[in-house]
Write a structure and sequence with these properties.
The protein is an alpha+beta fold. Helix content is 14%, strand content 31%. The termini are far apart.
């Protein structure tokens, strides 16, 4: 039998090799033509401006620099042929051969079905956990009477009735300075330990002096009242901020039980210690951060790189920038934001937590500081299962970084080696937000990163040896080719046991209508996971207000009303944010796990979790708050259980090395699990 399978695979492989490039070339042309007709793409959308890109520096001098947008080849014909050469709509050769082998053997081997449907013999709950380290937190059941067995993913924007009045102000200037287009992030976290997730919005400052005294530029903290409304507590908390903000990272860095905040910015960053009484103290200087450290920081994240029980800080830096030296970039008579290619990149930074409230810069010693990029998003996961958290950094118009944690205080950058540095065409993209989670429930975290129009949004599948770009075959390429994304997140939005994708979309240029005749405001997008690494754009069915375009930027994910459905908060330049409450209606169950570390860091960040259902199917996730672009998400670990009302087993691998297993865990609850010292 095995010999026959090998013969079939070899024969098909030879046949595919002979026909592959012609199929890709002519198939690509056909599909591109069809896509253009379907989307009513006009010729002008695919051409450079007749005047060509140009940058004016100073008075009376000109130098040529590439612009942010557009980046397409000149001419409609060259667009087709070059795209066809790069874009292959068919499965990869390896995927084709793999499928051929599976098909041929399916006729010879007994059939076996895999499903998330419940085992009829296990529909009844057999009991709840009596483990002493578990607390059950009351959860709010979904509202409504009769609900369908399964329904579309739906969201409702509740901002106007929520009491949130924050407006993101980027202090736009006639010069269109680079920081204006890049802000800003948002955090979902529980600052007062009342069990409800609160909101923190990062804001800009007056340009070019970076002054933040005007309340229109304040960062804003909103307390979740638990009834669907929020109260602005910024002044009481003393967290208005300093300078031109960009991103935020929330976590309990000193293990005192209260979540602290780090705010990344263009001209400086701040560390705010949560005092536990509703106020915060700026401890930036006290913690050992000096001004000489600061570069233009876009994002930041907390993780325990050395598993010592203390959260360390990673900061993603962008470019070497100042208002005094930024050139004036124009297309025709229109002033635009310059391309990142105009600026020199910066290294990222890593600060070790000393355990006494101070931090030490170990960027060079660890190897992180040896790599120059143009960092935007940062996400954490243990991609190779060695027990140490690794780092993915998306770079703007530069190859992505994957820092492998060696477990000895050093990191190796292995993005090229692992296959995540470039997209499926071997090109770097304008990387923005990223998330690093197990999409296909094989126990290995995958990487999702978003870019600008024409990049598509790559999905890198972790094979266990390296990563495979499955953007095309997954359906993501066709759904995102015409979009520009900023914030991004991976979460099970309909609790069916499969993690879906959310992207906050908007053009980079706020005057793209004038410059390239494309809209600057775009609607967000939801891609539903239908299984077997396939995704479908369900944005059109996601609610009547979901398709409203905006100048979206950061996106954080979390359960704001404790009903077990993951909500999303999106920032929106010069407008109210969007608070998307998940209204998906079905009978699916869920589990939300709040971790409390003892030997590990108190937030349990870096912990890996596995849920085993009654049919022996397994679900995987891990604890992290660093998601998307400049954002910090709900630290609780979420699982959609599909039709199962309990988990047969919940396993937790803590950063300390402790393996904890709980059995017969009831669904539809928020479970607080304390790390076992035994």
């Amino acid at each position: 039998m095995q010999t026959g399978v090998n013969f079939v695979a070899k024969t098909l492989g030879n046949w595919v090799s002979a026909l592959w490039r012609p199929l890709c070339f002519f198939g690509g042309i056909a599909i591109r033509n069809a896509c253009m007709l379907r989307n009513q793409v006009t010729t002008s959308e695919w051409l450079y401006s007749p005047s060509g890109p140009r940058v004016l520096i100073g008075s009376g001098t000109q130098r040529e620099f590439p612009l942010l947008e557009p980046r397409r080849p000149i001419g409609i014909v060259s667009t087709f042929t070059l795209a066809a050469a790069d874009f292959c709509p068919f499965p990869s050769r390896r995927r084709f051969i793999h499928s051929a082998i599976a098909l041929s053997t399916s006729f010879l081997l007994p059939k076996r079905e895999y499903s998330l449907a419940p085992n009829p013999s296990s529909l009844a709950l057999r009991g709840t956990s009596s483990n002493p380290v578990i607390q059950q937190v009351p959860a709010r059941p979904p509202s409504g009477n009769s609900v369908p067995v399964s329904g579309p993913i739906k969201f409702e924007n509740v901002t106007r009735q929520s009491g949130v009045t924050f407006v993101l102000d980027n202090s736009v200037t006639p010069r269109r300075l680079q920081p204006e287009t890049a802000i800003a992030g948002v955090a979902i976290f529980d600052y007062n330990n009342d069990g409800f997730m609160d909101l923190f919005f990062v804001n800009g400052a007056h340009l070019t002096d970076m002054d933040k005294h005007d309340p229109r530029y304040w960062n804003r903290l909103y307390r979740n009242n638990g009834d669907g409304t929020f109260t602005d507590v910024t002044e009481k908390a003393g967290i208005q901020g300093k300078g031109f903000g960009m991103g935020v990272a929330a976590a309990d860095y000193d293990n005192d039980g209260w979540v602290d905040l780090f705010v990344a910015g263009v001209n400086g960053s701040q560390l705010y210690h949560n005092n536990g009484d509703g106020t915060f103290t700026d401890v930036t200087a006290k913690a050992g951060f000096v001004e000489a450290h600061w570069k233009w920081a876009t994002s930041a994240g907390w993780f325990d790189y050395d598993n010592d029980g203390l959260l360390d800080l990673f900061i993603t830096n962008y470019v070497d920038w100042s208002a005094a030296t930024e050139p004036l970039c124009t297309v025709g008579n229109a002033v635009t934001y310059c391309s990142p290619d105009v600026f020199t990149g910066e290294p990222n930074m890593l600060f070790r937590n000393n355990g006494d409230g101070t931090f030490t810069n170990i960027s060079e010693k660890s190897g992180i500081g040896k790599h120059i990029g143009k960092g935007m998003g940062v996400a954490f996961a243990d991609f190779n299962g060695d027990g140490y958290t690794d780092i993915f950094v998306s770079n703007d118009t530069f190859r992505n970084f994957l820092f492998r944690n060696n477990g000895n205080g050093t990191f190796d950058e292995v993005g090229v080696e692992m296959g995540v540095a470039y997209n499926q065409f071997g090109k770097s993209i304008a990387g923005m937000g990223a998330d690093f989670r197990d999409v296909d429930n094989d126990g290995r975290p995958d990487i999702f990163v978003v870019g600008m129009a024409g990049d598509t949004f790559p999905l890198f599948r972790n094979t266990g040896k390296d990563f495979e770009d499955i953007t095309g075959e997954s359906g993501i390429a066709s759904a995102t080719a015409r979009l520009t994304g900023w914030g991004a997140g991976i979460a099970d939005l309909d609790n069916d046991g499969l993690k879906d994708l959310f992207v906050a979309c908007a053009a980079i240029l706020d005057n793209s209508e004038e410059v390239i005749h494309l809209p600057s405001k775009l609607p967000n997008i939801v891609l539903r996971n239908t299984g077997r690494n396939r995704f479908v754009d369900v944005s059109a069915q996601a609610g009547p207000s979901f398709g409203v375009p905006g100048a979206h930027r950061g996106a954080a994910m979390g359960d704001l009303n404790n009903d077990g459905r993951m909500d999303v908060v999106v920032t929106n330049q010069h407008a109210l944010p969007e608070i998307w409450i998940n209204r998906t209606a079905n009978f699916n169950h869920w589990l939300l796990v709040k971790l409390v570390g003892t030997r590990s860091n108190r937030d349990g960040l870096g912990s890996r979790l596995k849920v085993t259902l009654a049919d022996n199917n397994a679900l995987y996730n891990h604890a992290t708050t660093s998601t998307g672009y400049g954002a910090s998400s709900d630290p609780r670990v979420h699982f959609g259980l599909a039709s199962f009302d309990h988990a047969d087993k919940l396993e937790i691998w803590w950063p300390s090395g402790i393996h904890q297993a709980l059995t017969n865990v009831k669904g539809d609850q928020i479970l607080v699990v304390h790390e076992s010292v035994n």
